[in-house]
């Protein structure tokens, strides 16, 4: 019985890249998904793309094959980190709202999402993950990952110049998206601080510091609904940006 070793090697290399990507990139990096499930999903995706990557692959010796495995781990990790940077804007927006709203005193570490933040940070993170599965955004991410084999062939590694350029652009977009999401609410909370400061100057007997916490929390809870309603459009835009970055690494 004959067996095509080149097909097996190509499938294994594709599975390594897929698994490294799934460990880092959201929404698959969520700790509620066991590592065994991620590995099984990576192998399943590798079997699906095997007819696409196997025909042009040439079988390697043991040493070059091990180096190719290491390169595929690096490629998958780089691609996953690019997607992570794209979606970090939602978490950063929640952190900014927590900072201006006074919720940072109650921050805690979420071991499932590996997020250290207060209420809105974790709420925005969980909402973004839920929207990615509900709207099918994860399919767009997987589609960009499968098309990355055309930009970065198996076993050849990648030129880090393009990923670094994309990472620089992604970080710039991260700050811009954060300000666009949480900026209006943060401006309102900042003006509330200014108003409390002027009130303490006019009426020093009033304890503006003690009044500020419940007032800002009330304003944050009342006005954060508008920001929350904008998250579906934000997640859809970030999903498109992440898919474009996956296709632009070549």
Write a concise keyword list for the protein shown above.
250 residues; 8 helices; two-stranded antiparallel ribbon; mainly alpha
Describe the structure.
The chain has a two-stranded antiparallel ribbon. 76% of the residues lie in helices and 2% in strands. The radius of gyration is 23 Å and the shape is elongated. The protein is mostly helical and 250 residues long. The mean pLDDT is 79.
Write a brief structural summary.
The chain is mainly α. The protein has helices at residues 5-24, 35-53, 62-101, 119-134, 137-151, 161-202, 208-229, 231-247; strands at 108-110, 115-117. The two termini are 38 Å apart.
Low-confidence segments, given as residue ranges, are none
Portion in strands: under 5%
Number of domains: 1
Mean pLDDT: 79
Distance between the termini: 38 Å
DSSP, total strands: 2
Rg, Cα atoms, Å:
23 Å
Class by SSE composition: mainly alpha
What is the approximate shape? elongated
**Strand order in the sheet with the most strands:** 1-2
**What is the succession of H and E elements?**
HHHEEHHHHH
């Amino acid at each position: 019985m004959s067996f095509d070793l080149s097909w097996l090697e190509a499938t294994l290399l594709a599975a390594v890249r897929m698994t490294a990507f799934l460990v880092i990139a959201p929404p698959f990096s969520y700790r509620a998904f066991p590592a065994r499930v991620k590995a099984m999903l990576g192998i399943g995706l590798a079997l699906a793309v095997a007819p696409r990557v196997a025909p042009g692959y040439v079988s390697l010796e043991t040493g070059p094959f091990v180096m190719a495995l290491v390169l595929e781990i690096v490629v998958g990790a780089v691609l996953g980190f690019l997607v992570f940077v794209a979606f970090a804007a939602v978490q950063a927006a929640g952190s900014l709202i927590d900072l201006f709203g006074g919720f940072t005193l109650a921050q805690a570490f979420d071991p499932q999402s590996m997020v250290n933040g207060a209420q809105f940070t974790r709420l925005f993170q969980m909402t973004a993950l839920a929207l990615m599965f509900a709207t099918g955004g994860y399919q767009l991410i997987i589609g960009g990952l499968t098309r990355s084999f055309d930009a970065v062939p198996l076993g050849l590694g990648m030129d880090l110049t393009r990923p670094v350029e994309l990472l620089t652009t992604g970080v710039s977009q991260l700050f811009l998206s954060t300000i666009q999401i949480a900026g209006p609410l943060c401006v309102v909370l900042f003006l509330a601080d200014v108003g409390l400061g002027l009130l303490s100057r006019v009426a020093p007997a009033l304890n503006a510091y003690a009044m500020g916490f419940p007032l800002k929390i009330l304003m944050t809870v009342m006005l954060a609904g508008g920001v929350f309603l904008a998250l579906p459009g934000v997640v859809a835009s970030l999903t498109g940006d992440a898919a474009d970055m996956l296709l632009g690494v070549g």
